[in-house]
Design brief:
11 helices; 258 residues; globular; alpha/beta
């Protein structure tokens, strides 16, 4: 399904019954990242997933994208679907969006789950994002597939799941360059470290012990900054822990969301 929101067409799926849980995927993926988890939760929650700006079947205008723009995409979708309040689950860039959403619209967030994410991009990280954007523009997204899979999954998991690696790799390769570059430009400006104390929603921060991209220290810093936040570390997992440790992640969500 699609709705025109904030000047773009946003592709979304909604299913289930009960309290609403909104899921936002990581960079260079799409809403299908949550397929199995959405099916598992649909018996007790209304699960809303959407392709973020520049991803999947949602429009991919040239950027740069800004955090207020990306929050407006989300809020516009919620408004169009007449959803006043929602639990929010975001992974990686989705978690970055979740922090901005909870700060800008505290009355609309019930519970907040931030997975494999960070609250700040340091100066050296900004240079890295400039480089990644340049590679995407010059060589296409296929050039990012191998390195992305290495960062996202542990070596044993990659070796044991070649078909899944091919599917995720195809998702990365199919991401519009404009979307990758637009979000990359937003991520390079990320700096919420001094603002997280204002988040009011009960918050769960969860990450993989072997995540090189958003390491445990970055996730723990978020939990330490948000009043009353809970921190969970999953062993034997890298960045895409909702896939690599799917059962453990699902149990954490159900326990936290109630």
């Amino acid at each position: 399904m699609k709705l025109t929101i904030n000047g773009i067409d946003i592709h979304y799926e909604i299913a289930g019954r009960g309290p609403v849980v909104t899921f936002v995927h990581s960079l260079a993926t799409n809403l299908s990242l949550w397929d199995e988890l959405a099916a598992a939760l649909a018996g007790r929650f209304t699960v809303l997933r959407y392709d973020a700006r520049g991803h999947g079947k949602t429009s991919a205008p040239e950027g740069p994208y800004t955090w207020p723009m990306l929050v407006d995409d989300l809020v516009g979708l919620l408004d169009a679907l007449k959803i006043e309040r929602t639990h929010f689950v975001g992974l990686s860039m989705g978690g970055m969006l979740g922090q901005h959403f909870a700060l800008a619209h505290p009355g609309r967030v019930d519970r907040l789950v931030l997975a494999s994410t960070t609250s700040r991009t340091p100066p050296e990280g900004r240079a890295l994002w400039d480089e990644r954007i340049a590679v995407a523009r010059e060589k296409g997204m296929q050039a990012h597939v191998a390195g992305t899979l290495e960062r996202w999954f542990t070596a044993p998991y990659r070796a044991a799941h070649p078909e899944l690696m091919a599917r995720i790799g195809a998702m990365v390769a199919a991401t519009p360059v404009a979307g990758y570059a637009g979000w990359g430009a937003a991520i390079r400006t990320l700096d919420l470290a001094g603002k997280l104390g204002a988040i009011q929603a009960p918050t769960l921060v969860v990450c993989g012990a072997d995540d090189p991209g958003t390491p445990p220290a970055a996730n723990r810093a978020i939990a330490d900054a948000i009043p009353g936040a809970r921190f969970e570390l999953l062993p034997n997992a890298s960045h895409q822990l909702a896939i690599e440790r799917a059962e453990a992640f699902r149990h954490l969500l159900i326990d936290f969301l109630g």
